Amino acid sequence: MNPYITNLLILIAIYIILAVSLNLALGYTGLLNLGHIAFFGIGAYASTLLTQAGVPFIASFIIAGAISSIFGFLLVYATKKLRGDYLALATLGFNFVIYSLMLNWKSLTRGAAGIPGIVKPSFFGFTIQSNISYLIFVSVICIFCIYLMYLIVRSPFGRLMQATRDDEFGLRVLGKNTSVIKYKVMIISSFFAGIAGSLFVHYITYVQPNYFTLTEIILVLTIVIVGGIASLKGTIIGTFVIVLVPELLRFLPLGSSVLGPARQIVYALILLGILLYRPRGLFGRADLQ
Amino acid sequence: MKKLLLMIGVISVLFLFGCDTANTGSSQAAEPGKVKIGVMLPLTGDAASYGTGIQRGIELAIADAKLTNVDVIFEDSKCDGKEAVTAINKLISVDKVVAIVGEVCSSATLAAAPIANQHSVPLISPSSTSPAITEAGDYVYRTVPSDALQGDFGANLVYGYGYEKLAVLYSNEDYGIGFLGVLEEIFPSLGGEIVAAEAMERGSADARAQLTKIKEAEPDSIYIISNSPDSMVASIRQIAELGIEADLFGSEGLKGPEVAALDASEGLIITSVSSGTTEFQTEHEARYGEVPGPFAAQGYDAFKALSLAVKQGATSGPQIKQFLDSMEFTGASGKIVFDGSGDVSGNYDVYTVIDNEFILEDE
Predict the structure, then answer these.
(1) What number is the ipTM of this complex?
(2) CB contact under 8 A, A7 and B74
(3) CATH number at B31-144+277-337
(4) Nearest to B93 among A4, A104, A256 (CB)
């Protein structure tokens, strides 16, 4: 297969895990979480540092998810009194805090210089070197993650998540503890973001704090919104659209002097078109308050 | 579920079709003997101003090379590791380029380097100055000297003027950190002392906290390392406001009209990678009506190196690499010879701000 397409499919698989896990919190549970990229970054750095310390890849991969989960728990704990716009701002702030840590905790993360030469995943004496095998590896993990999240949203707990979004007060009246639901959702959501981060850095083999900035949050949010709130299917297709449309635009015959901005204009028009035509996104099933 | 599969199917087919048409389109265009060269630069995003400046330098080189058998393909890689990986994969496997000029930012070049090495496609960066690039692999070159050299040059310059207590205000990114690392190593070895080193975030317009600490350390000179116009203007102004009595030095990023226009910049001395020979500057002004942007001359030289290799008959990555390794020419930024790790030695200029203008100092 063409390495360019392999590369795109790998990125798509990673972003599907990231975006679907954001949709669990944002779409299904109504938690306006703008700090999702921080979990992605925590997973990325955790996995990098662990494998560099000699921990086997599989263990680093799982621990990376677990560490992200811990931060997910802490974030809900810190913001438990907030909701709506305030929660969005606080989680965005969390993102800047984590970014700042990555940038300034130089003894651990080497700061802005980043960490090059991250090893490719290996387990049971087998190392994933070629991009094709990496694609197979991430696809398997991606499908497994989607399946798990599908089970979660279809379960009774999934209904509670959606009820929290639609009418939190009503749910409390019925005797359900909505804060426990939020903790659980964030722990799950940040776990998946963490392992997506691990998959990402072991593919790119280089990590630096700039990968986890506002631009990336906007990218993942765009995927979720264009795909549709509270729709796994929408998010998956949204990822394909958001990653592939700019790539297709690379093939537009544009003069080199206008190439960059012209692509961005066309891209923006396509996104605006989708949202004008389908304000809830491609497969959206709910509105956020 | 059926609908979902259908949608994914349609999108993939459209996409593959898009690639295919592009493929056939270009393979029809690729006559025998035609060579393709890729260029990946940040044409949008934070670093776009560097990217477009360098693009002009490259376009001048394309015009000067007068090659009839070369197609040049530009890609936007946004100064971002992920985008750079995608762009280089596209250039190599879809466009089938044999060599690439790019990326601008060190982090993006480092992310793209393994792919260039894996496919044996030479990658020449016009502006990635991180010392880590030296180790990035056999196929990675650059026409700009490593920060290790500018740090060395800067430290010697400051010490040569007779200063012994240097404070450093640096931009908290790979560029600033790399530069600082070299200053911290060289300056004390000359006999001076680094009395303070404070970081400021890129683009931040407030350095008062850092400068207050620097003031307490009582330096006789301050070295400002930054590429962000907002930060440099703010910090120079705030040094004057806080009444710090130290003379100012700066890295090449400070060489801009905003800095020269400040009264507080009077006497500021900066080290800069060459901004091009007089002929290059005249040619650039004639074509674009502006003086060359930072690294435009290095962009010119990066493309010129590749075009010289192609003129001598190289048609594949490894052949171009062979020519690059033994190449020696005088480009827009000075003499270009790649050493064993693909680096060039430093040609630096020293400028002093006198009456709101940068005056080039003679040797």
Answers:
(1) 0.82
(2) no
(3) 3.40.50.2300
(4) A4
